[in-house]
Amino acid sequence: MSALFVKGFDSGTEEAALKKHFSAAGVIKELYFQSRDSAVVTYADASGASQAVTDLNETTIEGQKRYVIVKLDDPDREGKGEGKKKGKAKGEGKSSSKTGKGGSGATGRTIFVKGFDFDTDAAALQKHFGKMGAIEELHFQSKWAAVITFVKEVSAQKALAQLEGTTIEYQSHYLALKLDDPDRKGGKGKGAGNGAKGSTTASGSKRGDGYGRTIFASGFDFDTDDAALEWHFGTMGAIEDYHFQSKGSAVITFVKAVAAQRALTQLDGSTLDGQSRYVDVKLDDPDSRGGKDKGNSKGKGKSKSWGKRK
After folding, report:
1. Percent of the chain at pLDDT above 70?
2. For the chain, how many structural domains are there in total?
3. Is residue 279 part of a domain?
């Protein structure tokens, strides 16, 4: 087989740059783009393709930082498109295999990411996370959450260590990362532990674990939705977990205590986008809200553990 499927280079990469990089393995017969960050490269000889898989997988094109994935092309793979079309591949940004959805083959290589801006596209995620290593699969779970599977486990570990609490270029919201667990609580239905009387959060952790990182926010409009809440408080730091206590109040747990402190000093007395009511923000104390967390039952079905997939 003399054709390769190449993925992961910067969006907007020119054909000349690809040819220069991959011609190091042999004479290129043909090259065409499948999407903004993927292409099919055909060598004049099968040995060139084999050499490219050996030498060029997880390398970076000159002037770029993202690692490319290089593998022998499978004409039957889903999402390839038809013929030599240069348009967007079918499934770009979405996983079509079990590995990308947290299958056993992806254990340790897959991370769950949330907190980026709602209009973030696959190219922006690829650019931010591709610096850690070659990305095998990427698909969105919601407007602000995605599952990313790397080719190697070490890349996922690097992402957890280096990209937790960072912001994507030109964005102001902080990212929250964790190794993906397809069987995590909250993955099916309304979030296990939600209705417990003060025993656990929506993510299944003990209430005490959130002290110093959890705030109680009240005073926003009654029709405030998840997106508005995430957008407003996500600028202070990565949000681990949140749930509504009533129509106008919510409990929000950040990944780091410093983010909760930022929310206290910067968002108390602020207004959510498009609203006129001022928000009251304070460190959460379950005992000051009725002892047995009465509001939790009101928020049933609206809790958003950040492990929950949409």
Report:
1. 73
2. 3
3. yes
